[in-house]
Write a structure and sequence with these properties.
CATH topology: TIM Barrel
Distance between the termini: 47 Å
Largest sheet: 10 strands, mixed
CATH superfamily: Aldolase class I
Strand content: 15-25%
Mean pLDDT: 96
Radius of gyration: 18 Å
Helix content: 25-40%
Order of helices and strands: HEHEHEHEHEHEHHEEHEHE
Length: about 300
């Protein structure tokens, strides 16, 4: 990957910022005039809103196994997942507005605390301002890998703007069925959109590459959260990854689902997954020939 200069990062951010008068950053294509004070489908305007920025040791080992991941949680989200575990941030917009200068200072402060990367969580709808701040932070000495920690419901043409800028894509693959995605996350054409995004991310940075400390320096890691009732379609997702992307791609297979936000009112979502449901996903991972990644232990087992 050829690195993009700080000046070019800023220029790309400026170009994307100018499009916020008719916002089509994400596949929702809401067309909100965010520059005039409208909020998009995501709930965001034209100012970055940050829920928190801190050291985080709860990410996968290659991301937070050393000095921690320097996470910057962005408020709001283009998706409306009925079971969102971060719903006060994503759906209610909890957080505080930050200028481009302040966002850049957050990155540099995290670097000074010894983190191993800068990890933007749910960055899609704030991308113009993130790039403007990132370019300025690079000019001021930021030299860490950048993690794009996203839902995976992305536009390929927007991802192409990130080539040479993003080092690590930490990306969700939630569903293998468009109707389930529409019902539970409010997004259309999820499967085609998500798979096209994965292909583009992999084209840019390939398989996860680790340094001599076993920490990630570049590449793609796919997160797959197992949902109750087989809603996540693990078998189809892993067949796609193993057959069309790479059997060496890193997977984070997660058992941590719990019924948050609106899930308590849904008869399918209002419980944790069972050990058997998780075993089905693990078997699908193995049968697809995948062999890299992390399988989360089940903490709260149900029969």
């Amino acid at each position: 990957m050829t690195a993009v200069s700080p000046e070019e990062i800023i220029a790309r951010g400026d170009r994307l910022y100018d499009t916020l008068n008719d916002c089509h950053l994400c596949p929702m294509d809401c067309g909100a005039n965010r520059l005039a004070g409208e909020t998009g489908n995501c709930g965001a305007g034209a100012v970055t809103r940050v829920a928190s920025h801190n050291l985080h040791f709860g990410e996968e080992p290659p991301l937070s196994g050393g000095g921690g991941s320097g996470t910057i949680f962005l408020s709001h989200c283009p998706l409306n997942c009925r079971y969102c575990q971060n719903y006060p941030i994503s759906q209610y917009g909890n957080g505080a507005d930050a200028t481009v200068r302040e966002l850049g200072e957050m990155m540099l402060k995290l670097q000074s605390r010894g983190v191993d990367n800068i990890n933007f969580v749910t960055p899609d709808h704030m991308l113009p301002m993130i790039l403007q701040a990132l370019g300025r932070a690079r000019l001021d000495g930021l030299c860490l890998p950048i993690v794009f920690n996203c839902s995976g419901y992305e536009k390929v043409e927007i991802l192409k703007e990130l080539e040479g800028i993003i080092d690590i894509y930490l990306v969700d693959m939630r569903y293998n069925d468009d109707q389930i995605a529409l019902k539970y996350s409010g997004c259309k054409d999820y499967v085609k959109t998500n798979r096209a995004a994965i292909r583009e991310m992999y084209r840019q940075v390939g398989n996860l590459r680790l340094d001599d400390r076993e920490l990630a320096v570049s590449g793609v890691m796919v997160r797959h959260l197992v949902l109750p009732g087989g809603l996540s379609g693990s078998e189809g997702i892993f067949e796609f990854l193993g057959g069309e992307i790479s059997r060496g791609i890193y997977i984070s297979l997660m058992s941590q689902y719990f019924p948050a936000y609106k899930a308590a009112d849904d008869p399918t979502l209002n419980r944790r997954i069972t050990p058997n449901e998780f075993r089905v996903a693990v078997d699908a991972f193995n049968e697809a020939g995948l062999h890299n990644g992390y399988i989360q232990e089940m903490i709260h087992e149900q029969i």
